[in-house]
């Protein structure tokens, strides 16, 4: 049995869809601000694999709430990874492009130097370090710009804002790969089962949607596919001040995922599926 930390989040929901036998633990079952209690659940259930799909993901709020973010994004994954090592099951952890400072235009490979610009990235990087230090069979999957038909994400924000706006100013100088949560869920499940058979595959990997695009370009495609007439004006990051600085270069080199037979998903076609799922639920019309 696969044990998943997370239940209501974008990734956890997509894992649950694809692995109906997995046990998905929500905050009410496993509160990550209490890492040792969560670790005990691993020792109790003795799963075949653990996937951590929960995190503190409010990037701007983390700037003024770093202690909570650190407990959830760093202390908890470290404790979960130690418990997984104790019971001898692989631990799959998800991290972020925001561990990088985002200089230059070259895609980052997994071994490139990290230097987070904000509290969210700092706490996620500390989580990666805790997972590696736990000494068990693990995979750290860094992804970026996650979207799905459920929960808070950039697609939902754009559809909501476009209902009342003819024009939106969106940053055009941050470039990255929008990534469908469904594809990350498949990747996590593939990695978990392959790691159980071949521990030599353990390590840090990158996984993001292709092709790379700016947030403004992503917004334009959201409006094109959803038939919205809202236009997008690309602006420099300097004209969109936020509490947390974000990397300009979020490009991830995903080449080593070939080891698992995984390739970068095409985000535009996944977006079509996500929009049609949202329209079936009449989240937009
Ligand atoms: N969203 C993105 O754009 C990106 C996300 N990632 C990473 O991908 C992973 C999945 O993210 P995603 O699915 O988008 O995240 P979401 O924001 O959609 O969901 C986060 C989940 O974590 C849960 N959670 C938060 N705090 C706690 C807590 N104290 N105890 C238990 N559960 C908690 C939330 O539960 P509740 O609903 O109860 O609050 C929620 O289910 C994370 O590791 C994230 O850092 C990486 C790159 C981009
Ligand atoms: C709403 C809005 C956002 N923006 C900008 C702000 C930001 O640079 C970009 C995206 O906004 P968001 O709030 O969705 O960004 P953000 O929450 O920072 O998204 C990040 O979340 C975390 C969890 C990750 O790990 C990252 O990979 C990334 O997905 O768009 C505009 O330029 N105009 C707007 O009207
Ligand atoms: Mg956000």
From TrEMBL:
Provide the residue span(s) of the region labelled Disordered: 229-248
Asked if the record carries the keyword Oxidoreductase, the reply is yes
EC main class here is: oxidoreductase
The UniProt entry, under SUPFAM superfamilies, shows: NAD(P)-binding Rossmann-fold domains (SSF51735)
Name the PANTHER family on file.
DTDP-4-DEHYDRORHAMNOSE REDUCTASE, METHIONINE ADENOSYLTRANSFERASE 2 SUBUNIT BETA
The entry's protein name is dTDP-4-dehydrorhamnose reductase
Organism of derivation: Tropicimonas omnivorans
Q: Which Gene3D superfamilies match?
A: NAD(P)-binding Rossmann-like Domain, UDP-galactose 4-epimerase, domain 1
């Amino acid at each position: 049995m696969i044990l998943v930390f997370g239940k209501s989040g974008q990734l956890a929901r997509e894992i649950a869809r694809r692995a109906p036998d997995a046990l998905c633990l929500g905050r009410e079952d496993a509160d990550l601000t209490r890492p040792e209690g969560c670790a005990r659940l691993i020792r109790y259930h003795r799963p075949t694999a653990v996937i951590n799909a929960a995190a503190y993901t409010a990037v701007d709020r983390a700037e003024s709430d770093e202690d909570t973010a650190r407990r959830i994004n760093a202390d908890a994954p470290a404790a979960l990874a130690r418990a997984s090592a104790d019971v001898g099951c692989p631990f799959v952890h998800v991290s972020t492009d925001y561990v990088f400072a985002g200089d230059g235009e070259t895609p980052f490979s997994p071994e490139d130097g990290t230097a987070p610009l904000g509290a969210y990235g700092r706490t996620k990087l500390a989580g990666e370090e805790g997972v590696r230090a736990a000494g068990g069979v693990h995979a750290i999957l860094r992804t970026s710009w996650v979207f799905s038909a459920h929960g808070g994400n950039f697609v939902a924000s754009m559809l909501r804002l476009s209902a009342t706006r003819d024009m939106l100013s969106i940053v055009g100088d941050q470039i990255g790969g929008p990534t469908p949560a469904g594809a990350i869920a498949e990747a996590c499940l593939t990695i978990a089962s392959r790691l159980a058979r071949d521990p030599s595959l353990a390590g840090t990997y990158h996984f993001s949607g292709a092709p790379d695009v700016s947030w403004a370009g992503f917004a334009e495609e959201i409006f094109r596919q959803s038939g919205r007439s809202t236009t997008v004006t690309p602006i420099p990051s300097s004209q969109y001040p936020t509490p947390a600085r974000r990397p300009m270069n979020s490009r991830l080199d995903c080449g080593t995922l070939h080891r698992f037979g995984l390739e970068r998903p095409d985000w535009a076609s996944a977006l079509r599926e996500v929009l049609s799922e949202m329209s079936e639920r009449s989240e937009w019309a």
